[in-house]
Amino acid sequence: MYRALYRVWRPQRFDDLVGQQMITQTLKNAIMTHQTSHAYLFTGPRGTGKTSAAKIFAKAINCHHLVDGEPCNECATCKAITNGQLNDVIEIDAASNNGVEEIRDIRDKAKYAPTEADYKIYIIDEVHMLSTGAFNALLKTLEEPPANVIFILATTEPHKIPLTIISRTQRFDFRRISAKDSYDRMVYILQQKQVEFDEKALRVIAQAAEGGMRDALSILDQVISFGDNTVTLDDALMVTGSVTKKLIADYMEEVTQHVTKPALETMRQILQEGKDANRFIEDLISYTRDVLLYQQAPEMVDSVAMGENDQRFADFAKSIDAEVLYQMIKTLNDIQQQMRFTTHPDVYLEVLTVKLAQLEAPVSGAKPTAATAAVPDTAAVQQLTTKVDQLQAELQGLKANGVKAAPAKTARVKQNSNGPVIKKVNVSQVYPILGAATKDDLVQVREVWADLMNILSITQRALMHVAQPVAASDEGVVVAFDYPFLYQKAIDDQALMDALGNGLDRLMGHAPKLVCVPKEQWPQIRRDFLATHQPENSPAASQAPAKPAVVDQAEQLFGDLVEVKPD
Ligand SMILES: [Zn+2]
User: What are the residue boundaries of the AAA+ ATPase domain, all occurrences included (predicted)?
Assistant: First the structure.
């Protein structure tokens, strides 16, 4: 029977755990000096070694042949724990056992002394999945910990765990594993297995795994099975989906170099890779945004986003005019809108390709070569335009007959005549916050902001680097973003929005609603609000009659953190 690499090569000693030296050294010291805690919280992204560390800990604390804090892995106790056969080491997956009953069961059974080993160890994985009732039951146990019982709680989402629980544990934050560490571990394993490999292939895999060792080994498994016991670059690119990434880069270069025919061929190749038309457009939008982002702040685009060829991405970003990128996003959004109703997306993608290849930087005296190359194949364009007209006529017919399309994600898109396409700010969400905003609320949010940023992943934090809270009430926070396209990237990122909401909940004890705005629109939004929401009995206005009431009210609402410019 074939066993997955990550199972076979599951670390059995603290020193085998990749990239977590600080944590493993601390745990070894605690075991050697008999200063272990009753409860531990292991947090960190998936595949970073949390449950492996928990099992090694369970062995080390129960092993009678300890060497420098490491379990011997030879004695009966060690072997039984490795095989999951020791009754005193209990692994619980909270994702499947989230009921109060199970935890009550723990409470009852935890009272009894270990039967086979020195310590009874409960390892509760994905502990954030427990229900409130189960958390309360667990808290009772942690408040009066039975002797010789240790709880190890593991989670990818510590912000979902009640502070009352966290405060009773010793917390260890497992880091994402660096591409280098993950690369070294793969080299080690492949050498032990005597499997040949291309170093470049391992780099591609390490990058694709995004800091999870288990993911890296799972991908490596697939690549090995493809390559008949060798690891080739081609297979690694294919398995990680990097082929598509490369093709997207090809396509972007081709359309910006105005070579329509190769671009059309690349597009067909991408569709053959199994990508659907909508996904293709989403990928192009996201690639274009990354290029824009890289132009503004190169350090904010992580190398994972850039794919297997960082230099190529960087060169492309330097060569292309930002205005062209903005036009591309607009064109992509337009086509995405039109495609909502069609059953022939391929035609739209052809039109898209021709349109993109025609975009030019708005420079007077454009290079003559580029202009020549930009002349489209008019016959082909004409043909496509006719096809699209036909499809749109069909569509009008369908709509007239009452066929409704599902509301598309892009329905809220506002198209500016020039510049980037920005989703319109929903003032109906902003105004209630402004209506109840106080300086104190804003100060409170600002006080926890740094901690909130620390909860986020590195990529999320980089994105939020350009954002600040600008107004707050008890119920909501307005967050302004420096660049409009980053604002849009943020609001499209549900995981980020969830993390921010959960983080605020944890840090402030309640979860104010987060509403994002592009910073360039913020002064106007504020002015519009103040102009339309004059309070009848504004105390600020009566106290300081010398100043215009609007300015006064702005100061009262937003403190000295904003300047009110005269119109
Ligand atoms: Zn042992």
Answer: 36-178
Prediction pTM value: 0.53
Centre of ligand 1 to C-alpha 50, Å, is: 20
Q: What is the DSSP letter of 114?
A: P
**What is the Cβ-side half-sphere exposure of residue 483, based on CA atoms within 13 angstroms?**
19
Per DSSP, 126 falls in state T
| Domain that includes residue 232, residue range | 179-240
pLDDT greater than 60 at residue 559: no
- Ligand 1 centroid–CA 189 distance in Å is 24
Amino acid, res. 552: D
Nearest C-alpha neighbor of 14 from the set 69, 51, 65: 69
CA distance 188 to 129: 35
Give pLDDT, residue 535: 57
Cα–ligand 1 centroid distance for 82 (angstroms) = 10
Whether 349 maps to a domain, the answer reads yes
Q: Is residue 219 part of a domain?
A: yes
271-285, 296-310, 359-373, 496-510: segment of lowest average pLDDT: 359-373
184 with 109, same domain: the answer is no
Instruction: Check which CATH number belongs to the domain holding 278 and give it.
Output: 1.20.272.10
Is the pLDDT at 442 greater than 80? The verdict is yes
Per-residue b or e along 54-79, where b marks 16 or more CB atoms closer than 10 Å to that residue's CB = bbbbbbbbbbeebeebbbbbeeebbe
- Asked if residue 127 and residue 155 are part of one domain, the reply reads yes
Do 293 and 328 lie in a common domain?
A: yes
Decide if 391 is inside a domain. no
Co-location of 84 and 190 in the same domain = no
Q: What is the tens place of the pLDDT at every residue in 66-103?
A: 999 999 999 999 999 999 999 999 998 887 766 677 78
Tell me how far the alpha carbon of residue 121 lies from the centroid of ligand 1, in angstroms.
16
Calculate the dihedral angle through the C-alpha atoms of 300, 303, 305, 308, rounding to the nearest 10 degrees: 160
Q: Is residue 385 part of a domain?
A: no
Cα 8 to ligand 1 centroid, rounded to whole Å? 19
Helices (H), 299-409: 303-306, 310-319, 322-338, 345-358, 368-374, 378-400
Taking each continuous run of H as one helix and of E as one strand, the counts in the chain are 28, 12
Instruction: Give yes or no for a contact between 78 and 84, defined as CB atoms under 8 angstroms apart.
Output: no
Kindly give the distance from the C-alpha atom of residue 34 to the centroid of ligand 1, in angstroms, as a whole number.
17
Q: Are residues 138 and 61 in the same domain?
A: yes
pLDDT of residue 476: 93
The residue out of 327, 357, 387 marking a domain boundary is 357
* CA pair distance 262, 265, nearest whole angstrom: 5
How many domains, in total, are found in the chain? 4
Is the pLDDT at 270 greater than 70? The verdict is: yes
CATH of the domain at 210: 1.10.8.60
